[in-house]
């Protein structure tokens, strides 16, 4: 059983948590391959000229992977076509069998620089990064707040994954790679970080961990597992079942239900850190 504690008791552990996040991607991701088709820091169409040999070498020498020699342009073009590269630079991530995981590795890396969800495959339980926080406006989510050490991330996955697997089995036609998440319950682990702090403030959640919540921004409601309850596989499943059945005590998200001057509801959005 994990004991719930407040932020005051957690301040001294944040630096340790930050250092552990840097290595958590190794456990989450496993082995993958990288393919970079790039020659300039400014995106452009992949069929353009790659410039001079000197600039090509200067740029690619900063990268840790193998490169195709400048004079083998036809080979580079064939690789770009095989990986469906439309612009450069492009970071393509492949699995050990050279199946494409994502063509948007560059975007994923910019949005998740610590690699918390590396290698960014479709997962049933994800770390709540800024990217996923934005998606909370489209679908409800079960979110477990933890401090962020590797052992706590493992704990979060172990208690959330069975419920997520059961939920997904009931929806065999839903494909997260192509379908919109509207009304599809998402499952996240929220670490002790700025993204989680912003979400807590927006929703009105207690600043404590571990904290199991159901957050439904589209409907402006949230629910919290009662204080003192043990968080485990069975209790998480009961919490999810009760939420889906409408049996949990819910609270209004003040920011969503905030009244405008003329009356009626005025839905607000989670703050975008990139605009601060």
From TrEMBL:
Superkingdom, natural source: Eukaryota
Thioredoxin-like fold domain residues: 51-99
Region (Disordered): 1-22, 256-276
InterPro entries according to UniProt: Thioredoxin-like_fold, Thioredoxin-like_sf
Secretion signal, residue range per the UniProt entry: none
SUPFAM superfamilies attached to this UniProt entry: Thioredoxin-like
Positions with biased composition (Basic and acidic residues): 8-19
Protein's name according to its UniProt entry: Thioredoxin-like fold domain-containing protein
Protein species of origin: Trichogramma kaykai
